[in-house]
Design brief:
This protein has a domain of 308 residues: P-loop containing nucleotide triphosphate hydrolases (Rossmann fold, 3-Layer(aba) Sandwich). Helix 6 runs antiparallel to helix 7, helix 8 packs across helix 9 and helix 9 runs parallel beside helix 11. A hairpin with a 5-residue loop joins strand 14 and strand 15. It is built from 16 helices and 16 strands. It is of the alpha/beta class and 481 residues long.
């Protein structure tokens, strides 16, 4: 109970702090690690991920850049481009809790779409707030390790060979030419060429360094500097085999850029259990195992300024992976007794969680979380809905059922895609013509050398009798004669 100043009657004015208003998360901690949001389906963890990102983006004391890298199966990151439609909810909060929040917000959003033949024709476009663009990747800037997110672990010999090819390639060489320089040095069954390099070049995702759509160091540096704009990576049409490659490449470049110049960035990833729960014996694509290792390393990069907000269903999925690297753990509804025990065991030993917090973990309503700041007492927090739109079961397809009906403005990149296709076919034709000329010159050279060999005249060396004495005794005998 709190006591205000004396009223005009001379009595003290007594008022209570609203427990709900008190429990609403306002200014979050400045991050040095990652944030994990745990909870079963229906606990509100993916909505909370959006809310947290918005708080860290909007709060004047934080101002983090947001890069939403993985939308999960439902592509939930697409909803950043629309303001919340829960007007009654926000009006109620302002009146009932006297919150100062502005309510629904139209964020400035840039959707980036990796180029591929199946990319949808119309992309969201509502300037100046919402823009879309297509991106490609410079083959000269790709490391062999990046391809491991397509084919699994890459051998040291393949890494060395790929580096040699990049070094030997002529300036301005096409992506097709560089790919086939590698092809000439490996066997016909080489998995790196057949499953990664060749199909990604053929499907226009990888270009040479002249492509104006390349998303490299310069573009990523500019993206990080633009704190106001929320950057959303969209995988529409892209083969699932290449999606982790795109995520991994961009995060690697973000990490390199932060090494050059410190910035604060939050990277959102949903449904990461599918990566963390795999082990060496799991029957899953090898790229998932590589992604698990990379995520574990990236999470530990928090002190440099690159932070992750990750939603996970079960505590068991991340056991022993990040060990203390998280700043904040949000525990939503955990109906499984083993999950509750795993989540609270160490906190109970350290005396950092209250008994009442342990008891509510099995019954938390959506939006209710027990928050565990690293090394501090747990607290109960109620997470408001995000100020942007969020996925709901009634939405259906975002493009057809939401964006089309509420905005209906688009941008089309068909012309650019056709130009890239035409350039690819020209590169193939030019390479084949040049190769035929090289083969023809090689054949003529071989024929000339063969003809010279046939025309060679064998010169017989005359045999000269050796009249030198074979020994000192023969020499004496010759003298006597």
């Amino acid at each position: 109970m709190n006591y205000g100043e004396k009223a005009s009657s001379g009595l003290k004015k007594i008022y209570r702090k609203d427990p709900v208003k008190k429990s609403v998360l306002r200014t979050p901690l400045d991050l040095t690690g990652a944030i994990f949001v745990f909870g079963k389906i229906g606990s509100g963890k993916t909505v909370t991920l959006l809310t947290l990102s918005g708080i860290y983006h909007d709060n004047p004391a934080r101002r983090y850049k947001i890069f939403d890298a993985w939308g999960g199966e439902r592509n939930e990151n697409l909803y950043w481009g629309l303001p919340s439609n829960k007007n009654r909810y926000w009006n109620y909060l302002k009146k009932a809790l006297r919150l100062d929040e502005e309510g629904a917000k139209q964020y400035k959003v840039e959707y980036i779409y990796p180029m591929n033949p199946k990319l949808r024709q119309k992309l969201p476009f509502n300037p100046p707030n919402v823009t879309s663009k297509i991106i490609t990747f410079d083959i000269n800037d790709i490391k062999a390790e990046d391809f491991s997110l397509v084919v699994g672990s890459v051998s040291e010999s393949s890494i060395g060979l790929w580096n040699e090819v990049i070094m030997d390639a002529k300036k301005g060489a096409s992506a097709y030419e560089i790919a086939h320089l590698y092809r000439k040095r490996v066997s016909k069954t080489n998995i790196l060429f057949n499953a990664a390099i060749n199909p990604m070049v053929k499907k226009l995702l990888i270009q040479n360094k002249k492509s104006i759509f390349n998303y490299g160091q310069k573009q990523i540096s500019k993206m990080l500097d633009d704190q106001e704009t929320i950057t959303v990576l969209c995988m529409d049409g892209l083969d699932v085999e290449f999606q982790l490659f795109v995520v991994g490449y961009i995060i690697r470049k973000i990490k390199e850029e932060i090494d050059r110049r410190r910035r604060k960035v939050i990277i959102n990833m949903r449904e990461v259990s599918e990566f963390f729960k795999v082990n060496d014996f799991s029957i899953v694509p090898e790229r998932f195992k590589v992604m698990k290792r990379m995520l574990s390393n990236w999470i530990r990069y928090g002190r440099r300024g690159m932070h992750f907000i990750l939603d996970v269903q079960s505590i068991a999925d991340v056991r022993g992976i990040v060990g203390g690297q998280q700043d904040l753990t949000f525990l939503g509804r955990l109906p499984d007794q083993r999950d509750r025990e795993e989540a609270t065991r160490q906190l109970i030993r350290d005396g950092l969680i209250k008994d009442r917090h342990v008891k509510v973990l099995g019954t938390n309503s959506p939006g209710q979380f027990i928050v565990c700041p690293g090394g501090k007492q747990t607290q109960y927090n109620y997470m408001l809905l995000p100020r942007c739109r969020f996925w709901e079961t009634s939405n259906g397809n975002f493009y057809n059922n939401v964006w089309k009906k509420e905005v209906g403005r688009w941008i089309n990149f068909d012309e650019e895609r056709d130009q890239m296709k035409e350039k690819y076919f020209l590169d193939v034709k030019e390479y084949e013509i040049r190769n035929k000329k090289v083969d023809k010159r090689r054949k003529i050279k071989e024929e000339v050398e063969e003809e010279e060999d046939d025309n060679e005249v064998e010169i017989e060396t005359p045999i000269i009798e050796d009249k030198r004495p074979s020994s000192i005794y023969d020499f004496i005998e010759e003298k006597e004669v």
